[in-house]
From TrEMBL:
Pfam hit, one: Citrate_synt
Keywords: Acyltransferase, Transferase, Tricarboxylic acid cycle
Gene Ontology biological-process annotations: monocarboxylic acid metabolic process; tricarboxylic acid cycle
Active site: H306, D362
One MF term in the entry's GO annotations: citrate synthase activity
Lineage: superkingdom: Bacteria
NCBIfam families associated with the record: cit_synth_I, PRK05614.1
Family label: Belongs to the citrate synthase family.
Pathway participation: Carbohydrate metabolism; tricarboxylic acid cycle; isocitrate from oxaloacetate: step 1/2
Name by which UniProt lists this protein: Citrate synthase
Species of provenance: Nocardioides marinus
Length: 429
């Protein structure tokens, strides 16, 4: 089989052989196709990069039709079951699972970088009383670049690792403090006796007790949620990290851009919309009328459907299981009953079956977060903490990829050309 594509340009009658490698052609090869020698080369128009690969990556594999998600080749189900978030973070960053010594060193390093400079605290205290925690997180991660000016030396491997450890370590501190600020509560310093996720819960919820130790089942459930969110290949925020990182800026600035992307409702906000929807439906009896409205095109069943997954999102299955563990501690969220019934009906209904609409990661995650008593504004902050190792693994890959260039998409120019400027006095006369 010849691994190439023959293209005939009907404008000129000329044929071109375009090589195919790894299931793709190079857009630059299409650029050689021209209507005339001095005409611009053929471009590919692809808003939203729907069918354009921007990089080669070995971090995360997704098969949306089969519902497969793997980090560095390991199925998400196995990692969620048997691993910890920090082990998964190591796997994403280093490409392989750690030995015992490597794991202990990694956990130690992350644990001892959880504190932030006192001026970061002052900076965060300066936000308006009702500042959105995601806006605070984005700004404070960006601000870290000014505390570690050496972070800009991205060609230095040791320096890169240092910033990666710092960022994974400090993210829960910044996330928890963003939450406390909105509540008018004092910031809680990290407790390095606790695990990564237990310490995060302590910084969120500790009051006057000398030590805050959350129920182990809750710690495990949140740790699992972090694992499920740790990477998802070239999504909007990862693309933002890579795009900004391609200018060779420091990783704090690149990750701050990723947080900005995640802040948007089309990316990180669907689980909040699911809760609003469940609350509006109110009880099981109202489900048929609601489903009819969805099928009539009046609205969408939030938490269903995915750009990539045309099968059950593997993360949704794991979260559904985690719901049981969390509700055992917190009591059942009454909205769960509606969610389960909605899922049952939708999975049997031809409208959803035909369109391959299955529950996605957001269908159940909001219910769990609510059981932890997180306000909806915190949902994306939790997502960001989980996604940080993925952003950094992708950034690391970018910094070492010789094929990468500064991101600079083409445009198809549709505007005017060569107009004559008329000075203001004449235009306004
Ligand atoms: C995630 C999402 C944006 C993916 O969209 P997409 O890949 O661009 O799919 P499309 O919008 O082209 O939808 C394809 C068809 O399924 C329908 N559809 C998609 N998601 C739907 C949903 N949640 N409820 C009802 N119908 C839906 C569309 O109306 C369309 O039907 P049509 O072919 O009759 O016009 C979309 O499924 C959605 O809006 N889901 C709800 C929001 C959500 O849960 N987002 C979180 C994603 S992790």
């Amino acid at each position: 089989m010849t691994e190439s594509l023959t293209v005939r340009d009907n404008r000129t009658g000329q044929e071109y052989d375009v090589p195919i490698a790894d299931g793709a052609i190079k857009a630059a090869d299409l650029g050689k196709i021209k209507a005339a020698d001095d005409a611009p080369g053929l471009a590919v128009y692809d808003p939203g990069f729907v069918n354009t690969a921007s990089c080669r990556s070995s971090v995360t594999y997704i098969d949306g039709d089969k519902g497969i998600l793997e980090y560095r080749g390991y199925p998400i189900e196995q990692l969620a079951e048997g691993s910890t978030f920090l082990e998964v973070a190591y796997l994403l960053i280093h490409g392989s699972l750690p030995s015992k010594v490597e794991y202990e060193q990694w956990v130690h390093d992350i644990t001892y970088h959880t504190f932030v400079h006192e001026n970061v605290k002052g900076f965060m205290e300066g936000f308006r009383y009702d500042a959105h925690p995601m806006g605070m997180l984005m700004a404070s991660v960006g601000a870290l670049s000014t505390f570690y000016p050496e972070a800009g030396m991205i060609q230095d491997a040791e320096n890169r690792q240092m910033q990666i450890v710092r960022m994974i370590a400090k993210m829960p501190t910044l996330g928890a403090w963003s939450f406390r600020h909105a509540q008018g509560k004092p910031f809680v310093y990290p407790d390095n006796d606790l695990s990564y996720t237990a310490n995060f819960l302590s910084m969120l919820f500790k009051m006057s007790e000398s030590k805050y130790e959350a129920d182990e089942r809750l710690v495990k459930a949140l740790d699992t949620l972090f694992i499920l969110h740790a990477d998802h290949e070239q999504n909007c925020s990862t693309n933002a990290v890579r795009s900004v990182g391609s200018s060779q800026v420091d990783p704090y600035s690149a990750v701050a851009a990723g947080i900005g992307a995640l802040y948007g409702p089309l990316h990180g906000g669907a689980n909040e919309a699911v809760l609003r929807m469940l609350r509006r439906i109110g009880s099981k009896e109202n489900i048929p009328a609601f489903i009819k409205g969805v099928k009539d095109g009046n609205e969408r069943l939030m938490g269903f459907g995915h750009r990539v997954y045309k099968n059950y999102d593997p993360r949704a299955k794991i979260i559904k299981k985690a719901c049981d563990d969390v509700f055992e501690v917190t009591g059942v969220n009454p909205l769960l009953e509606i969610a389960l019934e909605l899922e049952k009906i939708a999975l049997e209904d031809e409208y959803f079956v035909k369109r391959k609409l299955y529950p996605n990661v957001d269908f159940y995650s909001g219910l769990i977060y609510e059981a932890f008593q997180f306000p909806p504004e915190m949902f994306t902050v939790l997502f960001a903490i989980g996604r940080t190792p993925g952003w950094l693994a992708q950034w690391l890959e970018l910094t070492q990829d010789k094929e990468q260039k500064i991101a600079r998409p083409k445009q198809l120019y549709m505007g005017d050309r060569g107009l004559d400027f008329t000075p203001r006095e004449q235009r306004w006369a």
